[in-house]
Amino acid sequence: MRLVATGLLLLMAIAFVLLRRFEGPHPIWGYAIAFTEAAMVGGLADWFAVTALFRRPLGLPIPHTAIIPENKDRIADTMATFLRDNFLTPQVVARRVAGFNIAGTLSQYLAQPDRDGEARLREGAGSLFADVLESLDPERIGGQVRAGLAQQLEKIEIAPLLGRMLDAAIADKRHLPLIESAARWAGHTLEANEELVRTMIRERANALLRWTGLDERIANSVLDGLYKLMAEMIVMPDHPLRLKIDSMLQELAWKLVHDPVTQERVERAKREMLANPAIGDWWQAVWERIRRSLIDAARNPDSELGGRFAGILVELGGAVRDDARLQVQINRFARRTLVGAVSRYGDEIVRLVSETVKRWDAQTVTGRIEGAVGRDLQFIRINGTLVGGLVGLAIHGLDMLL
What we know:
By secondary structure, this protein is mainly α. It has helices spanning 2-21, 27-54, 67-70, 72-86, 90-97, 102-111, 115-135, 138-155, 158-171, 176-192, 194-204, 207-212, 214-235, 240-258, 260-275, 277-299, 304-321, 324-359, 362-401. Among the domains are: 2-70 and 360-401, no CATH class; 141-296, no CATH class.
């Protein structure tokens, strides 16, 4: 546009020279010369005016030129004041958002997204969740969670809790499968180490027993007795050993609830476990694995995690859409939040705008403003050239009449 405006001005200058060079007696020549002469004046005047906004015309130190670079700080303050007075006052914000049904609009979109919107919602929800997890410091967050768990566990007396859990399990006979499993495990272990048991018995037998072969018979008898004991424990609910184990468990449950000595032992073991650095390292590794797994799942568009987040948002949108009272409450909260934010941070925003513009150098300010409105300013030059020519025609016509 600058080339067009300048080219039009040069065209008027060339036309003026040619018309004066070949001027004839016909009155039309006077009108043409007047048009080109006035057009040059109008084009040059507007060129000077437009150029004076951003720089000094031809580099000459003419007063009141390079207006924008010379008044950069004042322009910054004016922009900030305009922003504050017209946009960032509580009254203006309250008036602008008074008629907005923010909750209704948002809930309608969340409840009934189109296919593309649903895909974006799924991807956006998962990406947001992943970004939040990635922004967290793993060691710091893991340490805070570990410290929080440790504090809560220190406050909890686990001995009575364990005692009541054990007592409830015994009352419901949920401990019986554990006893049977322990008996089976003991039987399998004995079978796998049968030769070791025989060797131990032979080594502890004296020479006479070994010479007579009684050591082997004793070993067989011991193994047979142990196998029989394990089998009877499994199939006989009223086996004496099972009853003895029941009695021991009931006594342990009672002590965990009522015996201070037993409770102190359990609490001491709990404190020692929490103070063990290995537990902290183990929890840190567990937390990191959980965090990385959640991030990978959230980043994956085909995973269920992003779909669950999207589903939650859809359900939330439907609930808000169908509840007019809830919409009113959400809209009221949004208005109060926006007005409160403007009241608290409006001056900071204005100061940020003003200081940012003031930190720009004059060339940056000039370039950005000229880039934003420069095209329209070149139209001013073009209009000035054409309007100046028309005014020249009018003045020449009046002169001819007079």
